[in-house]
TrEMBL record:
Record flagged with keyword tRNA processing: no
Descriptive protein name: Histidinol-phosphate aminotransferase
Keyword Protein biosynthesis attached: no
PROSITE patterns, alphabetized: TAT
Domain of life: Bacteria
GO molecular function: pyridoxal phosphate binding; transaminase activity
InterPro entries with a match to the protein in the record: Aminotransferase_I/II_large (IPR004839), HistidinolP_aminotransfase (IPR050106), PyrdxlP-dep_Trfase (IPR015424), PyrdxlP-dep_Trfase_major (IPR015421), PyrdxlP-dep_Trfase_small (IPR015422), TAT_signal (IPR006311)
Length: 388
């Protein structure tokens, strides 16, 4: 027991020097106290992961997981390489540096942040906590289903609200579903898989109203693809004291999907609650070093965004030429309605070395194409023209 206490105190002291990350002090204790229902959860393979696994490695164009094929940046790669020599050390200090860097940029405190190896563990933490006692999770349909599907596997109920006519989340209809049994409202903005964006003022008003009744979780995984992310984020509602959780990830525009780094921003009490379902210390030293170098590396982000937009415009032109409509995209993927069975389309594209995803909603089969390098988009075009 004494060794555990000494280790805990040392972690607390180190974290304080790095930026006052006091929640590290409870990492070991949290593992022991973590609710038993966490360990009863059956592992769920996400559909994007499933698609990648089924595709294998012989793809000309990997356009099925919304990854950024242009990253990570050169600075991030160098930082990762440099961090290897000291990777035998626990990265308590450097993780504190990353927390502080984010806190300073966003104008918040370190205790408003909880970081994990990607946003997925944090979505799971929210699913576990906010589904307790059979509480309901309200989402759009379709929308990213990681959080609500995990909640449904536990005790929770999943309430799906159809999208509007222009394929956006229907905030009014979602708000109308809120009742005494609502555990959380999940808003993915920009939305996956439709890549549509909500009006910022309307979403902010929604968050301010609904958060007085229940927790609002805003997943901003794709917000860096917007022209002005700072103007569209809901972090301002957290700073104003609202019961809102905002999720961010390095997996998209930063190009860290395989390096795994994500975080949530919320009220300190909410951070403490969610931290009970995480270790709070799962990031590798190399990932932390890369994230510190990459965070708000504006020239790289601008370049990656411009390349994404160029590939997206090319995709639009291909679809138009072949007589297909599409949903205008505010992210790094595009969804369009198919003229054949979705599963068959995906299979035929895969035979041609192109991996894409399919959905079915509104009585139609749809394809979601992730934006890749220009050579990948050209491979998509060649295969698509054979089937269109």
């Amino acid at each position: 027991m004494s060794s555990t206490i000494n280790r805990r105190n040392w972690i607390k002291s180190s974290a304080f020097m790095a930026g006052g990350l006091a929640f590290f002090s409870g990492t070991i204790g949290k593992l022991a106290a973590m609710p038993a229902r966490v360990f009863k959860l059956q592992s769920r393979v996400l559909t994007d992961q499933e698609a990648v696994t089924n595709a294998g490695f012989e793809l000309k164009a990997r356009l099925l997981a919304n990854e950024n094929p242009f990253g990570p940046s050169a600075a991030a790669k160098k930082a990762i390489q440099d961090a290897i020599d000291k990777s035998y050390q626990y990265p308590f200090m450097t993780q504190g540096t990353l927390y502080n860097k984010i806190a300073q940029y966003e104008g918040i405190n370190y205790n408003n942040i909880l970081m994990e190896s990607g946003s997925s563990p944090l979505l799971l933490a929210a699913a576990i906590h906010y589904s307790k006692g059979g509480k309901s999770i309200i989402t759009g349909d379709p929308s990213y289903d990681d959080l609500p599907s995990h909640a449904q596997q536990l005790e929770g109920k999943w309430i799906k609200v159809p999208l509007t006519a222009d394929y956006k989340l229907d905030l009014d209809a979602m708000e109308a579903k809120v009742d005494d049994n609502t555990g959380l409202v999940y808003v993915c903005n920009p939305n996956n898989p439709t890549a549509t964006i909500l009006d910022t003022a309307k979403l902010k008003a929604f968050c301010e109203r609904v958060s007085k009744k229940t927790t609002v979780f805003v997943d901003e995984a794709y917000i860096d693809y917007l022209p002005d992310p700072q103007a569209s984020t809901m972090i301002s509602t957290v700073k104003a004291g609202s019961n809102v959780i905002v999720a961010r990830t390095f997996s998209k525009l930063y190009g860290f999907a395989g390096l795994r780094c994500g975080y949530v921003i919320a009220q300190p009490d909410t951070i403490k609650t969610l931290s009970m379902y995480t270790t709070g210390f799962s990031l590798a030293a190399t990932t932390i070093a890369g994230a510190i170098a990459a965070y708000r590396e504006e020239e790289f982000l601008k370049d990656a965004l411009q390349k994404t937009l160029a590939s997206k415009e090319y995709l639009y032109s291909v679809l138009k030429k072949e007589g297909y409509e599409y949903i205008p995209s505010s992210a790094n993927f595009v969804m369009f309605p198919l003229k054949m069975d979705g599963k068959k389309f995906v299979s035929e594209m895969m035979k041609r070395g192109v991996g894409v995803r399919n959905w079915q909603f509104n009585g139609k089969d749809w394809c979601r194409v992730s934006i890749g390098r220009m050579d990948e988009m050209e491979a998509f075009a060649d295969a698509f023209k054979q089937l269109s």
